[in-house]
Amino acid sequence: MAETSNSLKQLALQKFKKNVWGVLSFWFIVLVAIVSLFAYVMAPDNSQHANQMHLSIHSKKPGFKVDMLTIPSAYNTNQGYVNRLFFGKENTDTEIPITNFKVEEEVLIYNEYASDGLVGAEKSISLNRFPQKNVTPFIATKTFLFGTDKYGRDLLSRVLVGARISFFIGFVAVFISLVIGVFMGSLAGYFGGKVDALIMWVINVTWSIPTLLLVIAITLALGKGFWQVFIAVGLTMWVEVARVVRGQIISVKEMQYVVAARALGFTDFRIITKHILPNIMAPVIVISAANFAAAILIESGLSFLGIGAQPPMASWGAMIKDHYNYIILGKPYLAIIPGLCIMSLVMAFMLIGNALRDALDVKS
């Protein structure tokens, strides 16, 4: 049996490798996972939530460059390396876009950046604010590869950090849907009768509740936040898993290997977990990939409505909400870039779902 099982797994893996779009989608998802995990290492703005605002350089085009003066803070955050690596730097320094500067009698004189060819205000600061009175390391040309948003934040950094919410909501939602869906579907399909009727009633009632209403209800109970959205999305997606599991168990529970397990006196729990579920997981894996894509779309829609991740957290849906009106103002990239990110990630999960369906299909 072990050799047969291994050979079937190898056959499915070989079929999956032959699907070019499925393999490309897999590696794209791996890339997004790495970006999500180490976003603050890759982002030019590694402050928490990539939230460094510079209103004087708002809505600049991709490739915009400006000289940035960083005034160091006397406050020491004592932030640990691991915390800074995964949650961003607690930045207490002050960043000021400037056009020019000069040093006179231990005083730094600079002009703040101003758009449309205007001359910015001239200001001065003592060199005592800088270590060893050396200002050179604190003035550097900063390039915004994706431009800046309407608050003057680095759009590339916001996109990279925003991938974390859109990606991890899929994991949380799919995990919740699998735990609840497999449990409820197994009970309904295996025991049948009144248990099946009761669980199917719960499934139909849950399925009839719109996701938005459920999120609003949970928000009223727990407050706004991305964890509440994660839970709400998961609680609306388990019904699909439960229906699939129920149907699969009904079709196999009278097969010979299940009858033999009952005759040997095995408990219902062992029969379900050791004999039935391992043989019906193929369609569950496929629907989980589809649910992953659906969770990303739902979270993006909720963030667009202002119910999802709250400011200053970066979210692709919230970025579209903040900048969709810029489409008619000559700067559509502010909304198109996060929109393309959502589309690409959802498409990757749909393609890998199709590839898994073909690879796990025993009839092909």
Automatic annotation (TrEMBL):
Localization per record: Cell membrane
InterPro entries found in the cross-reference section: BP-dependent_transpt_permease, MetI-like, MetI-like_sf, OppC_N
Keywords on record: Cell membrane, Membrane, Transmembrane, Transmembrane helix, Transport
ABC transmembrane type-1 domain location: 163-353
GO terms for cellular component: plasma membrane
Transmembrane spans: 20-43, 165-191, 198-220, 226-245, 280-298, 333-356
Topology relative to the membrane: Multi-pass membrane protein
Pfam families listed in its UniProt record: BPD_transp_1, OppC_N
GO biological process terms on file: transmembrane transport
Top-level division of the source organism's lineage: Bacteria
Family designation: Belongs to the binding-protein-dependent transport system permease family.
Descriptive protein name: ABC transporter permease
Organism: Allotamlana fucoidanivorans
